[in-house]
């Protein structure tokens, strides 16, 4: 699987208009499409947050005094990198439009 941070480097972080009929061609329903995109964006948000916290925990210093707070340039660069990433909703919308999200229905009678 491709690293999500590498994949979204060229993705425009700005919101733009989308063709609704192109988005609903697979599901036939805008609400189902939005539900799929929302669930994927929540997964991305949790994964990115967890990864960021893991990286920042490496720099955590356990001290009892407030006077010893110092800036770490590497920590700041990591935070800036994650801030510049597109919103998880934009990433998941792009994945859905590129048909990179695979979904299935719980009810076997419905078709994908």
What is the topology?
Blueprint: H1 4-7, H2 20-23, H3 30-57, H4 73-84, H5 88-97
Helix pairs in contact: 3-4, 3-5
Give the uncertain stretches in residue-range form: none
- Helical/strand content category: mainly alpha
Largest sheet: none
Question: What proportion strand?
Answer: under 5%
Gyration radius, in Å: 19 Å
How many strand units? 0
Distance between the termini: 23 Å
Q: What spatial form do the alpha-carbon principal axes imply?
A: elongated
**What is the average of the pLDDT values?**
81
User: What are the secondary-structure elements, in order, as H or E?
Assistant: HHHHH
User: What's the number of helices?
Assistant: 5
Share in helix: 40-55%
Architecture overview:
The chain is mainly α and 112 residues long. It is 52% helix and 0% strand. The chain contains 5 helices and no strands. The two termini are 23 Å apart. 9% of the residues are buried.
